[in-house]
Amino acid sequence: MELVKKYSLVLIILLSVVLRFWQLNSNPPGLTWDEASIGVNAYDISQTGRDEYGNFLPDNLKSFGDWKPAAYIYLTVPFVALFGLNEWAVRLPSAILGVALVWLIFSLVKELLQNKTLGLLASFTLAISPWHLQFSRAAFEANAALTMNVLGAYLFLKGLKSRKLLIFSALIFGLSLFTYQASRLFVPLFILLLVITSYRQIRWRSLMPAAVVITVFLLLLMVTLFSGQATRLKTFNFFAYQRSQNEIQKLSLESKLPANSAQFQILYGEWWSYARGLVERYSIYFSPSTLFVKGTLEERHRIPDLGFFYYYSALLIPLGIFHLLKNQKGVGLIFGWLLIAPLPAVLSRDLISILRALNMVVPYVILEAAGLYYLLTLINRLRVSWRSLVYGVVIVVMLSNFIIYLDRYFVHAPVEYSNYWLYGYKQTFEQVYKIQNNYPKIIVTDVYGQPYIYYLFYNPDRLNFQGQYNLDQFGSDVGTVKKIGKIEFRHLYWPADRNLKNTLFVGSPDELPDKDIVPFKEFNILNRVKFLNGEEVFKLVERGDG
Questions:
Q1: Tens of pLDDT along 305-328?
Q2: Which of 214, 365, 370, 450 could form a disulfide with 320 if both were Cys (CB 3.0 to 4.6 A apart)?
Q3: Alpha-carbon distance 361 to 345, whole Å?
Q4: Which structural domain, as residue segments, surrounds residue 262?
Q5: What are the pLDDT digits (tens) for 44-70?
Q6: What are the DSSP calls for 243-270, one per residue?
Q7: Residue 84 class from Cβ within 10 Å (0-12 exposed, 13-18 middle, 19+ buried)?
Q8: CA distances from 401 to 21, 49, 378, 455 (A)
Q9: Residue 6 within a domain
Q10: Would 504 be classed as within a structural domain?
């Protein structure tokens, strides 16, 4: 038992490694658009120093026209250079950073709350956290930024005693700004929170070099934002979407007030719609139903039958709040962190985004760990005859929840949600690559979005096309690539396309219906690619010269 206590952090980290690396190449079952884009650009940079469009060492990646911050791509470069371009190499940096955060949260809590046991419990809680596991098992820039933010906070707290560490803290926070879009709102607020909650300990003169460093990063960020590379931010801005004219007219008729009148604007103006929307969105991230039962609306990030946390967390988090409020130390930073963390998600277009709110996972985990610590303290006060029984109940409840999660995540989620993870692109384009020389023309459907990036990802000859294609972009949303070499990416219209001879068609079941293919000898179905739930996703059909 003493050996377990001595090496408890090592055991926790080993557990986090197993949970984050097991089946990393196959679960999640497919690559997202962004993962494929990260991989292709990282590989191109590793080989030529240029991104997919031929730009030399860019600080923002054009990608689909969404101008991704480039830091995560550069983190991925050595991994694809070493292991080749595959799912494992693209996801490995995120998994490593996820494990690193398990150690970092121990160090942060130990420094902030001066309690090693609570730090170990926080480390364990994060190691098995469904929310954190979801995003540290795939190539999400948000996960990298989260680890940087926690490292920045830890270095800041340590830096209150050492000026050099404050400079490193500023450098890490600056890097986070160029890692994920949400950091561009969260990091400045978080730094302000750190300063406010530590103002009594700050030696203001020693803070100046770090302030200069972060100011330089913020100025560089401003240059980026005003250079035309912030179109995606405009698209995902909550305030860019107003009520429909039908809704305004309905309110005007019901109230018998002209829509342009001052009274109407006071009672029903856009400000009211925005205020109500913001309150609704913000409250979602503190809703017990969302946190412990329903989870997210985003199918890709759902775990069947579970929320963001385990069921028992619904008891531990309130206990943790009570315990920390009673002891007060570190409360300002933890609760302030929890309050500002959802803002990037709240101010975005989507009603709920647990990805953009990922910074919440750390304060929630600390609260949960504090609740577990307090619960164990209460149990230790019981009579010896009761203590073992209650410990047994706690272990059974936590272990059963954990086993249910493992079953839902590793067994059911890949099957139920493989379509949302775009399963099938790999199987399709690996076959297309093998037979593409047999056809002068190939048409691939774009009904599932961005097929070109998967063609490049699974094409060993991808460098032949670097900088050789154009992105068609309309407005401020993402664009598409319509053609690479002899391959067209577009919707299939079978009544017309069926007349194209010597062509390979890759389409959805709706675009290539069996009734219009099977009875005709000029067509040959080469393969049917299916989701893991058995539903057909792609059909490969060839037409000869007949």
A1: 889 999 999 999 999 999 999 877
A2: 370
A3: 13
A4: 239-268
A5: 999 999 999 999 999 888 888 888 889
A6: PPHHHHHHHHHHHT--TTSHHHHHHHSH
A7: exposed
A8: 21, 47, 22, 40
A9: no
A10: yes
